[in-house]
Amino acid sequence: MTAGLRRALREAAEAAPPVTVPPGIFDRARRRRRRRTIAAVAGTLAALLALVIVGPLWTWPAPALDAGRPPGGLALPDTVVVPPGMTADLRRAPVGTALVVFHREGLPGAGGDENEPLAVVGPADRYRVYDRPEWTPSARDQSFLLSPDGRYLLMPNMPSGGVYHTRLLDLGTSRLRTLDEGIPLAWSPDGRQAILVTYEGDASGSAPPLPGEIRVLSMPGGEVVRRVALSAGDKVVAAALSPDGAALAVQRGASVTVYDREGGTAGFDAGVALLAGPAAWTPDGADLLLQKQPGQLVAVAARTGMPDPVRSYPAVTPHPLPYTADLPPERVVAWQDGDPVVVVGDQAVRLGVTPRVLVSAPAGSDELQIATVSLGSAPRAPGLPDPGPFAARYWSVAPWVVTVVLVVAAIVLVLWSPRRRRLIWHAVRI
Amino acid sequence: VVDTAEARASFEEFVRTRSGSLARSAYLLTGDRHHAEDLLQTALARAAVRWERLDNPEAYVRRILYTQMVSWWRQLRRRPAEALVEVPAEAVQPAAEVETRLVLSRALGRLTPRQRAVLVLRFYEDRTEQQTAPLLGCAVGTVKSQTRHALQRLRMLSPELAELVGVRAPGEEVGSR
After folding, report:
1. Which of A125, A131, A73, A56 has its CA nearest to residue A95?
2. Tens of pLDDT along A300-331?
3. How many angstroms separate the CA atoms of A164 and A185, rounded?
4. What is the torsion angle, in degrees rounded to the nearest 10, for the CA atoms of residue A406, residue A410, residue A411 and residue A414?
5. What confidence score (pLDDT) does residue A376 get?
6. Which of A108, A277, B37, B98 has the fewest other C-beta atoms within 10 Å?
7. Measuring CA to CA, which residue among A268, A262, A261, A322 is closest to residue A294?
8. Interchain CB contact of A206 with B (< 8 Å)
């Protein structure tokens, strides 16, 4: 019944136009297979690499840490080190509470611009870096202020126009909040208030006089609870609140003025001496410590400036330190059992009959601050630095990894599917 | 190196002796010289990379021809639209061989790739249904139904081919061997 069809098919086949088979198919096919194998191996490796690196990043952002109960307690490590490479950024992995914050050239994440990152060390040797978005003023103004409880950083910020603002970074959540106008000067010893100074006009210039205002803010809310008007004159170089928060000492040039909450004022000429730091008030609120020359802290009566030789602390530096004219080598940051705790260069030292080093930062650190709440515990030996969660550490390189993977995947697709290309060509041709 | 050289020589000998027959099958499957060339070269290339391991190279190449043909057309979805018209069956007039070939080629071109493959395997290569099924990767029953549908469609598309493909009623078994 289908013999005719068989015959017709054979006749059609015999009459078919010649079909050519080009030489070299054997070698071309094997070359193509080798390329595909290489591409497949490369693609697989790239996919595995992407999976290993990018996969865990889905856990970002890390949850905020409970700053109230940090693991490992609040004891200071007696030594802090330069954070390891690829240490997590604080904004992606909050540290909760900072025990030590320091700045030093060459920290991970340093991009060579003027905003150098900070190293943040939390409980249990958790290390983070914080690449500040702030414009960093001169060292004399201090580029950051760590709150006594270690929960907040105050930083000056000058976006444009010469007007400073103060920003508050919450180390428990990594949230950054802009507070009132002004440059942060100091935290109160109990951490409940902060002192800012603001000037009328461009404060970045060097030409006094400038009228302005001292503002005391309740923290962390940021409401202004006290204002002290400043007449035109020298810039404010230091300020400190008394332990009970009632008296405010402000130094402008050589003049130190104490403002009582009730409105009374008193003052004296400090000469070349400088208020010795945010905890310059003695615990009883009677005296102020002044740094008269490197290695010498002098106690004077807060309202008269009369020296109190009994409470002075000569020769406090345990080792020679570079002295700069702008920054007092000794900054009193707290008191411990009646003795001042000072930051001296790259060390925090408890003064007394025998000065004792509490914390040592890496050599060359030019700003060091500690959470004074941690002075309630004896310093401990440091453990291995914890550079943070994997996802937060490598998040910054994830876009590069994804890009490389996509490029490799595109190459693999092209090499892998010559048939696809041929089909497309056929479709176009027909 | 010696193995590869031997394999290359064996492959080239195969191409020299069998490419003509394979090309005719490819042409019947595609109905186009260029498509036939691409189809045959693809099948030969796939055979080349595993040449040393092939027990029956020709069977392998032919199987690639059929499966690849179906695969290509499935991907392209270029099956031409069929314009079925009600044309009363006419008595087959004696026609010249050339005209019959042209009519057959056009009709084959309007079948589905699998139907073309079934017809080529069954009536050009004279394979049984049992031999055809594994080549197309389907069941014997599928080969039977595809053959029946292909012949019915040929009759519908080109009534002048009725004598070639038979005039059995739809559903009737044809050509079982």
Report:
1. A125
2. 999 898 887 766 665 444 444 444 444 446 78
3. 12
4. 170
5. 83
6. B98
7. A322
8. no
Q: How much of chain A exceeds pLDDT 70, in percent?
A: 79
User: B111 is written with which tokens?
Assistant: 């079948």
Tokens of B2: 């010696």
Interface contact B175-A1, CB threshold 8 A: yes
When pLDDT is cut at 50, 70 and 90, the band that residue B87 belongs to is very low
Of A313 and A262, which is predicted with more confidence? A262
A19 near B CB under 8 A: yes
Amino acid A85: pLDDT: 84
- Range with the lowest mean pLDDT among A3-12, A103-112, A237-246, B108-117? A103-112
List of E strands, A135-270: 145-146, 152-157, 165-170, 176-181, 183-187, 193-199, 212-218, 224-230, 236-241, 247-252, 255-260, 265-269
Phi, then psi, of B118 in degrees rounded to 5 = -60, -45
* Contact between chains at A21 and B37 (C-beta distance less than 8 A): yes
pTM of the model: 0.59
User: Which H or E run includes A374?
Assistant: none
A14 vs chain B: nearest CA distance in angstroms? 7
- To which residue do tokens 């994440």 refer? A109
Q: How confident is the model at residue A194 (pLDDT cuts 50, 70, 90)?
A: very high
Residue B138, min C-alpha distance to chain A (Å): 23
Residue type, A429: R
Q: Indicate the DSSP class of residue A44.
A: H
Q: What pLDDT is stored for residue A429 in this prediction?
A: 57
What angle is formed at CA A263 by the lines to CA A258 and CA A265, rounded to 5 degrees?
A: 30
Looking at every residue in chain A, the average pLDDT score rounds to 80
Closest alpha carbon to A243 in A275, A280, A272, A197: A280
Interface contact flag, B33 A17, Cβ < 8 Å: yes
Contact A289, A332 (CB under 8 A): yes
**Closest chain B CA to residue A5:** B164
Q: Token match 């601050």: residue?
A: A369
Contact A129, A107 (CB under 8 A): yes
Q: Which residues pair with A167 in a beta bridge?
A: A155, A178
Distance from C-alpha of A102 to C-alpha of A82, rounded to nearest angstrom: 9
Closest chain A residue to B46, measured at CA: A29
Nearest CA in chain B to A7: B124
DSSP letter, residue A361: P
- Taking residues A396-416, what's their average pLDDT? 74
DSSP letters, chain B, are -HHHHHHHHHHHHHHHHHHHHHHHHHHHHHSSHHHHHHHHHHHHHHHHTTGGG-SSHHHHHHHHHHHHHHHHHHHHT-PPPP--------PPPP--HHHHHHHHHHHHHTS-HHHHHHHIIIIIS---HHHHHHHHTS-HHHHHHHHHHHHHHHHHH-GGGHHHH--PPTT---S--
Bridge-based pairing state of the strands A193-199 and A183-187:
antiparallel
Burial B34-43 (b: 16+ CB within 10 A, else e): ebbbbbbbbb
pLDDT of residue A26: 92
> Measured between alpha carbons, how far is A411 from A196 in angstroms, rounded to an integer?
58
